[in-house]
Amino acid sequence: MNSVDIYIVVEGSTEQTFVRDVLAPHMAYAGIYLHPVLIGKPGHKGGVVRFVRAENDIGNFLRQRRDTYISTMFDYFRIDSKWPGRAEVRRQIQNGATLTAIHKASILETETHNEIVRSFPGCGSGNRFIPYIEMHEFEALLFSDADILAEKTGIDVAQIRIIIEGFGNPEEINDDPVKAPSKRLGTLKSGYRKVAMGKTVSEAIGIQAIRRQCPHFDSWLTKLENLKEGAGA
């Protein structure tokens, strides 16, 4: 059975732990091996994710083994204002367009892909780079199952359901950094720990259940799964 290796440049410890401990074991059953790598140099602190830094890391992986693929896992809220596609999203919204999470992600990921292809034309980047921007941040995935999220965090399930009912799906929570999923959880539960809870809750919910509730996340995993077919499986 042919296998596929995918390096995922991630934003922080929450994403790194999720990919390593929850997503990677799930994908490994299909012969798809995920390797999460923190953006930037060792010891890099969180904050705004600058495209120039991401571009450098992505380029380094593209220049290495030609039989690997590269993806990303960055929060929409964390990417900088100069990120490819950001200006187009702003322009459309200012012109009155109502953009869904998937629409915004499509603009950003298409422009990010195009920019990487222009920057690294001789590395097969067109086929080897599969960008993913989390809408609107990682913690949205945890709202895929209100009962499990409530059980694992000790939050009243009714409060979680009120949040979910205001949106079409968890990835729509929320185009406002002040009301982001992690901010909402922190408000409902004092001492909410992002990394530990991210793993505990997502593991309990399960990848398949998250995929059913989060179409953009599901689309990303489908793209990664399709790489197996391209590898001649």
**CATH uppermost class of the largest domain:** Alpha Beta
Give me the Rg, rounded: 17 Å
The helical percent reads 40-55%
> Structural class, from helix and strand content?
alpha/beta
Number of H/I helices? 11
Ordered list of secondary-structure elements with their pairings:
Blueprint: E1 4-10, H1 13-28, E2 32-38, H2 51-63, E3 68-75, H3 86-94, H4 101-119, H5 125-128, E4 129-130, E5 133-134, H6 146-153, H7 157-165, H8 181-188, H9 194-205, H10 207-213, H11 215-230
Parallel strand pairs: 1-2, 1-3, 3-4, 3-5
Helix pairs in contact: 1-9, 6-7, 6-9, 10-11
How would you sum up this structure, described in words?
The chain has 233 residues and is an alpha/beta fold. The chain folds into two domains: 4-137 and 215-230, Rossmann fold (3-Layer(aba) Sandwich), CATH 3.40.50; 138-205, no CATH class. It has helices at 13-28, 51-63, 86-94, 101-119, 125-128, 146-153, 157-165, 181-188, 194-205, 207-213, 215-230, and strands spanning 4-10, 32-38, 68-75, 129-130, 133-134. Strands 1, 2, 3, 4 and 5 form a five-stranded parallel β-sheet that branches. α1 (13-28) runs parallel beside α9 (194-205) and α10 (207-213) packs across α11 (215-230). It is globular, with a radius of gyration of 17 Å. The model has no long low-confidence stretch (mean pLDDT 93).
